[in-house]
Amino acid sequence: MKTETFDFFPYGCQYHRAPTPPREEWEDDLAEIARAGYTHVQFRPQWRCHERRRGEFVWDDLDRLFDLAARNRLRVILKAQLENAPDWVFTELGGTRIGFHNQPLDPIAHAAFYVGGWWPCFDNPRVAEAATEFTRQLAERYKGHPALWFYNAWNEPRSRPLGQCRCEHSVASYRDWLRGRYGTIEALNAAFGKAWTAFDTVFPPHSHSDYAELFLWRQWAAEAVAEQVALSVRGFRAADPERTVMCHVGCSSLVQDPACDTSNDFLNAAEVDRYGCSFPIELHPANLIDRNAPLYQSSWLRRVDPGYWCQEFYTNYANWHKEPEPDFIEQAIWMAIASGCRGLTFWQYKSERFGEESNGWGMREIDGSPTRRSERCDRIAGVLKELGADFAASRPARSKAAIWFDLRNDLLMRIEEMRSELNHIEEIRASTDYSCKQAAAADHTILRRLGVTADFVVSGDDLSGCRLLVADAVELVDEAAAAWLTGFVRDGGTLLIGYPFACRDERTWVTPQRPARGLEALTGCRETLRIALPAGEIRNIRWENGAMQAAAGWQVILAPAEDADVVGRWEDGSPAAVRHAFGNGQVVTCGGNFAMAFFRQPDRSAIPPACTLAMELAGLEACDSLLWRCSRYSESCEYRFLFNAGGFTEAEPGRFEPVYTSPGCTSAAGRLGIPPFGTVILRGTPASR
């Protein structure tokens, strides 16, 4: 990824997506955006609007918008919207996608793609070539304009619905992908226990029931999505090779359905200079997991690109609805910034006027008048301007605790928990309500309550400086990952495992020994009996100190090795949790999933004893608190953020000076009073890290 520094913190908004806002509002709107202190605007030129007839490009509206932005000294992010394809892409190039049972997925219009033409198959080489030519023409037109800042190659790259695409071009691409990965059909058959005749007889699956074929196909889909990003980038760089190109995903891999809404952050990010993400958080938080969501998602994005952008921050929902509380909107913005994002763009300046987005998404009203939420956004713009270059150059430090999140494991566990009849796969809808996602969200929230904003890591990452690693609901552990985990513990790390763990191989098959890959030597225990618990059922583990720990999903009875200690038992006395010393480190293994139990009742659940034990073994101080602290560091300053996720509380700023307090905060006798959803930013000289 490209490393860039700015002497300001980028803080702007999406402004124009045809047909709104209308031309007569542009001049006043862009002047007001600049007056309020925003640094940039984003324009979204839709392919369908600018090349209605093949080879004839019309730029009048975009020319006017660029000139107004320059007049107001607003930088422009130019984001091509290729999914809105012209009619001729479908009628002349055969661009229609094909879904399950060979049903055409005819182009449609909806509120986010109002002008229609949503969306063609970019696996079709003629469509891909035409799309690349559009982005080349777009860059050629504006590369010399003083307002142009950088390009956004793709808005929310993804493959959806589950059935897309089965046209001849996509099927050929899938077969080529299999051929490139396995070489021969015999090798593919041997790898998965299949009996295909040739690559030309392999088709995308019509069922998830065997797991393996859907597992393969959706991995191909993720690579096809990244290639779509690449084709747009090629067009921009053909005309303007030195300028920065980014893309941003709709939901990061951490919170996206990997089967029904496929996208791979790492593959996408490899095609661009800068990566970003829309920010799909619950704007009416119901519990601690919702309140932690901005920190949770940011931790993942920081792993994908340390200079990531929060590229669509929503202050409102689509359509008519209850307005979010400004206190939470403000806190969520600061959480995203505190977590290390390098720039933030709101979606969008004004509320929308049509379809299922009616009166939705905007900071301001349709007529441009301010709202309670836009007033908070404007206030933050002023603070960021005052903090200036030093703050823009600041970064979070690496955490001493990390959570392992594996994309292949996530896909496999999503497929496992699909529910449909054998040949009714089209009934499956996107969902993230399954064990792997639940465990990751809960683990991050638990650690946040204990005083740590955990990083996310993937297999093979450098874990130097990390004291605690959480591996929760990770069924697929390959040989390289097993060696990585073993090395971490041998070198002195503490590993916290929540079952299920290391019980499937790369074929998606259940392994005879669990944990697999010889990891019994690391964990000091093995799985003997596994009982699948009905949805909603909780079993309890009694710890050696008498504390109780709820578990959901599974009741796994463990057989400890002679040199391991049983630290928790099921209610029938069978081993449920084991501690094992290995090398210079420690492993704590739980046969019941504490994170999934916490996920179900996060505001009523106690901190799991497994987590406090693991923190203790790792030498990390655990302090159960709903006043959450994060920091960004420059060479000369620490910017400390205090986020109140609970009731009214107090804090001592100590050697730090307040540079921002949200409405309702008080100061008396050297103490700060912080109301619910209150935020305080302090600045001081950094201590040793």
From TrEMBL:
Entry-linked PANTHER family: BETA-GALACTOSIDASE GANA, BETA-GALACTOSIDASE YESZ
Residues in Glycoside hydrolase family 42 N-terminal domain copies: 22-380
Keyword list, A-Z: Glycosidase, Hydrolase, Metal-binding, Zinc
One term under GO cellular component: beta-galactosidase complex
UniProt GO BP: carbohydrate metabolic process
Organism this protein belongs to: Victivallis vadensis
Family listed: Belongs to the glycosyl hydrolase 42 family.
Reaction it catalyzes: Hydrolysis of terminal non-reducing beta-D-galactose residues in beta-D-galactosides
Entry-linked InterPro entries: Beta_galactosidase_Trimer (IPR013738), Class_I_gatase-like (IPR029062), GH (IPR017853), Glyco_hydro_42 (IPR003476), Glyco_hydro_42_N (IPR013529)
Top-level class of the enzyme under EC nomenclature: hydrolase
Enzyme Commission number: 3.2.1.23
Protein name: beta-galactosidase
Matching Pfam families: Glyco_hydro_42, Glyco_hydro_42M
Gene Ontology MF terms: beta-galactosidase activity; metal ion binding
Transmembrane annotation, as ranges: none
Record domain Beta-galactosidase trimerisation: where: 400-599
Top-rank lineage group of the source organism: Bacteria
